[in-house]
Amino acid sequence: MESTGDRAADAYGSDPVIGDASFGEVSIESSADFAAVPDAFQRLWTPHRMVYIEAGPTPHEQECPFCVAPSMSDEKALIVARGEHCYVLLNLFPYNSGHLLIVPYRHIATYDEANADEVAEMGSLTQIAMRVLTATSHCDGFNIGMNQGKIAGAGIAGHLHQHIVPRWATDSNFFPIIAGTKAVPRLLGEVRAEVAGAWPAA
């Protein structure tokens, strides 16, 4: 009888098809076993993104995800730390593994609307995030910034958030430019657990 390991090895010799994942079990099957004519394309299977496709073109116009996130569990919302005025969570659409967002609880749109307590805590959480990411992922640098307003590229323009993107000396390639695709090597839940576990207690 053919073992799962043998089938997985055979699959990687052609075009692998990743089947249903139930309760942590993933089956890998070779496309040679199916009735189809292969073509020249390689494919990245991203079924987790169906939730965004099904939500429609403007899902954030109905409910602000940054207002909803604090009411959810840390695991479900990808929150790694909660402060008094702001919280820290993973970006659902990361530029790199460990891409964090610092978000005030208040629904404010721009940095000039933040009060002194919110500004101070955003700053302190940013420093902690940098130290934690350096310790856990051994990154070489960071991109830190805010897009203010939709015209400036803010994906969720109605709720202020600051990006912290860890960078490595070898993390740049032509894949995003040529293929319009960003390869992110680690799962969000795995990164959240690691960063949250390394976050210092308040």
From TrEMBL:
Any GO molecular function: catalytic activity
CDD domains: FHIT
Gene3D superfamilies associated with the record: HIT-like (3.30.428.10)
Nucleotide-binding listed as a keyword: yes
Pfam families membership: HIT
Protein's organism: Lacisediminihabitans changchengi
PROSITE patterns in the cross-refs: HIT_2 (PS51084)
Keyword annotations: Nucleotide-binding
Segments carrying motif Histidine triad motif: 159-163
Record-given protein name: HIT domain-containing protein
Residues binding substrate: N91, H163
